[in-house]
Amino acid sequence: MTRLHHIILALGSNTQQATVMREARKLLSALFPDIEFTHVMWTEPIGMEGEPFQNCLAHATTCLDVQEVERKLKEVEVLCGRTKEESLRNVIRMDVDLLRYDNYRCHEQDWDRPYVHQLMKEIK
Which residues form the 7,8-dihydro-6-hydroxymethylpterin-pyrophosphokinase domain (predicted)? Predict the structure, then answer.
């Protein structure tokens, strides 16, 4: 029997925000059919110069292991146009981070961000 794992994702974009966020949500919905997204909110960049971000969180279930989830998320970033060169210039077309895999918390520093606290209230 395949075990389903609960995941929470954080999405962010500071370039062509609405268009890229829409594309990322579409791609993630294809990967995780039961995914549910929070509302999108604008935030100022943290720890970098650049344009404001659109951010949201998402909750889904998956039978993939944690490494495969991480690999799929990086693929989504690339499909949304993210490049290392742009990232070095603080242009983040799409950043998708795995915040939680079952009870394991990832990206510990992100959990302290105000928008994560606020949007977590929308996660079931």
Answer: 8-123
Domain that holds residue 100: 5-120
What CATH number is associated with residue 18? 3.30.70.560
14-31 average pLDDT score: 98
What's the mean pLDDT when you consider all of the chain?
96
User: What is the total count of domains within the chain?
Assistant: 1
Task: Please check the confidence at residue 80 and state whether its pLDDT lies above 70.
Answer: yes
In the prediction, which pLDDT does 1 show?
64
124, pLDDT greater than 80? no
85 vs 17, 38, 89, 92, CA distance in Å?
Answer: 18, 30, 7, 10
